[in-house]
Amino acid sequence: MHPEGVLRAIARYGVPVRAIRRFSVRPVLPEPLTGLGTLVNNLRWAWHPETQDVFEAVDPQLWRSTGGDPVKLLGEVPAARLDELANDHAFLRRLELAVADLDGYVTEDRWFQTAGGSPLDAVAYFSPEFGITHVLPQYSGGLGILAGDHLKAASDLGVPLIGVGLLYRHGYFAQSLNREGWQQERYPLVDPDGLPISLLRDGDAPATITLSLPGNRELHAQIWVAQVGRVPLLMLDSDIEENEPSEREVTDRLYGGSTEHRLLQELLLGVGGVRAVRTYCRITGHPAPEVFHTNEGHAGFLGVERIRELAAEKDLDFDTALEVNRGGTVFTTHTPVPAGIDRFPVELIQQHFSADVFGPEVPIERILELGAEDFEGGDPALFNMAIMGLRLAQRANGVSKLHGVVSRGMFAGLWPSFDPVDVPITSITNGVHAPTWVAREVHDLTYANYTADGDSVFEGLDKTTDAQIWETKRLLRQRFIDDTRSRVRQSWLNRGASEAELGWVDSILDPDVLTMGFARRVPSYKRLTLMLRDPERLKSLLLHPERPVQIVIAGKAHPHDEGGKKLIQEMVRFADDPEVRHRIVFVPDYDIALAQPMYPGCDVWLNNPLRPYEACGTSGMKAALNGALNLSIRDGWWDEWYDDEFGWAIPSAEGIEDTERRDDLEAHALYDIIEKQVAPRFYDGEVPGRWIEMLRHTIKELGPKVLATRMVRDYVEQLYVPAAQSSRALNSTYDGARELAAWKHKVRAAWPEIRVDHVELQGLGDVPQLGTTVGIRAFAALGGLEPSDICVEVLHGRVDANDEITDPVRTTLSQAQTYEGNRYRYEGELKLDRTGPFGYTVRVVPNHKGLASAAELGLAAGPSDPEDPSTPDLPAGSEF
């Protein structure tokens, strides 16, 4: 273009001016409205409908257009409207009541305060992501949503928790589709000033923590605080001027960047997180945590930092400091497959934990031992974060009963002397935070109230007619469909379509059609496209003339997962077909805002992972609380709580090695269940009584089990309180920790000499009969240990074809006689309490009051030759 033409274009259209920095300016509220600021700054509003009502009353249209974001609402509401509200006595009274209700919520005694004599002062809960609300986009999927629900339930129960995470300036990615249905990622900038969080200050200056890095570099981070009800969530932010450009980018994206970038994030979360907790407690006076809980291995370095603290400040040696740390640490694994674990090159760990970087208090070789894969099949060149997490925590758990079994098998190499059943990893099944996920209409219909201990009272459901329930579900279905139509329209516009060609979107989905939901991350094992194994069969279900089905699908693939993106594209291309696009849709950018109308709007929640690779899978729990029935492979939590009154179990072809054949079998089982069981029951009458009977049963019987308050109480009673007791015992003078460390060293050194010489039964008879009690005697050589150092136990129960004892029962034997050479006889009784193949064995295990499990040291000694019936050489005058 000629220069004069350029000038004319500029004069006519203007030149875009891009800001070099962006920040949010918050309004100054009139004095009578300062309570709005109080409500905004506590994230309880995210799950408290009455507080949301107050915000909506400020400006209903603006509340909707801002997506229910109170910070944006107050930033955009006209000053004239604020002045009007400042003189509106009815609104001010409503605001006053809401502020008073919040004050009561955060100050009054709740379940934890009334539970009686808990020794727990505080718990620090570390997680790489937290899903509190869509307004605070610091989560990617199930791990973050679970962490958010954990904090909310802890707040409801009054459990003294401090959350610890990172503040990602770009969060996780926003998902869209291109014309070909391929996933596109973009990373919207997160402006902390536009979030309901505040900067922790130390006097007049922002509070910061510092980590040393290789090459004489330093990593600084400031601390943002999100108040989640009663629970503070600390989020570390490296995007500050004190850092060099590369260090400022450490907290740029969730699960992004190179291997070293990921390591720096985990160093900041673990090491920096401990320092942030110390800083927060010093500034605010909050009780210091006695228990540190790491939600997955990402925060595992917190244990290394605590050991360094104890060595530097209390002059403890490594082994003593390790015992102090272990006693007060809980580790939760969410990973069902080894590939899901973070592993770093050993050389990278050596660089970041050398004496001149991390400090001289903790020898680098001891740190490397913590994450070493020194077991059969391990890779000595890699440092394993989950392995370190298990070695640094005295208590560990999986997130469902089945996942506990999977985890014990997956990590059995750390305890080679024990069968997987004895591996010290327990399970606490996940739960979901009902106030966050249950639609208000469902709550009003089914729950009388939330009790003081955070549970729900379900008696209200018995006072509701079938017709009322059915009409409510239709209303929620319609609301979900309206939301979905809006999202599908926007998705097609983003894909390049014009408004003129999108008239069909207004008629997609039907509020009177059986609606199924499928929404989750898109790794291959979750099998997004299993329903597409037989496209014609699926079409026949979608287009059935009398009993049609419609399916709404959502999910994100990791940005580097090309296989997951191909699965999404395959699903999108099927859903783009004009023949079926009114019955099946893929909705991009699955997040909390999409999920909240989706769960109540669905009649059936579909889940078809490869068993047993679903650790828990809480989306089906959220759907169940909203009156949806589950249709799922028996994996994760569904394996544990399945009942045919809660939904349907898709038969698993587990054990068939041909994955294509397995997928075919399970897909066709899925089609059959939908066609022959689900759809006929849904369409059985104008108001399907049998369906509603299942819905009632699901909410009343399954509902209490899937609550996050139940989950958090389990953590408190089974893990937090025992860990706090251990922590106090080891922290009081550190003498207990020194003694425990010395005792472990002694036992490990002496263990090669421990053996069971001989085992015999008395009174068995020629034909063992059910109910018979027989005597058992075992002779054990203890080498350099004392009888108080060990425990002799018999394990017995039904045996399989390989003579392995299934579900063994343990009985401790008593010391009966002492012989020369530090040899002993132990006796007890064994009851034959079951028929069929029966077996037993005897073993010696370490015994100390400081152990949380007999398997803690990974040491066990059994009969050296269980086939040998001879009696060992015994001292003269013995009974045998």
UniProtKB/TrEMBL annotation:
* UniProt key word Glycosyltransferase: yes
Give the InterPro entries listed for this entry.
Agluc_phsphrylas, Glyco_trans_35, Glycogen/Maltodextrin_Phosph, Glycogen_phosphorylase_DUF3417, Pyridoxal_P_attach_site
E.C. code? 2.4.1.1
Domain named DUF3417: residues: 29-136
SUPFAM superfamilies with a match to the protein in the record: UDP-Glycosyltransferase/glycogen phosphorylase
Keywords attached to this entry: Allosteric enzyme, Carbohydrate metabolism, Glycosyltransferase, Pyridoxal phosphate, Transferase
Cofactor(s) demanded: pyridoxal 5'-phosphate
Domain of life per record? Bacteria
Q: Does the keyword Nucleotide-binding apply?
A: no
Entry's Gene3D superfamilies? Answer: Glycogen Phosphorylase B
This enzyme catalyses:
[(1->4)-alpha-D-glucosyl](n) + phosphate = [(1->4)-alpha-D-glucosyl](n-1) + alpha-D-glucose 1-phosphate
Residues of the region (Disordered) are 857-880
Q: What does this protein do?
A: Phosphorylase is an important allosteric enzyme in carbohydrate metabolism. Enzymes from different sources differ in their regulatory mechanisms and in their natural substrates. However, all known phosphorylases share catalytic and structural properties.
> What does the sequence similarity comment in the record state about its family?
Belongs to the glycogen phosphorylase family.
Q: Kindly provide the name given to this protein in its UniProt entry.
A: glycogen phosphorylase
Q: Which organism is it from?
A: Kribbella karoonensis
Give the classification, highest ranks. Answer: Bacteria, Bacillati, Actinomycetota, Actinomycetes, Propionibacteriales
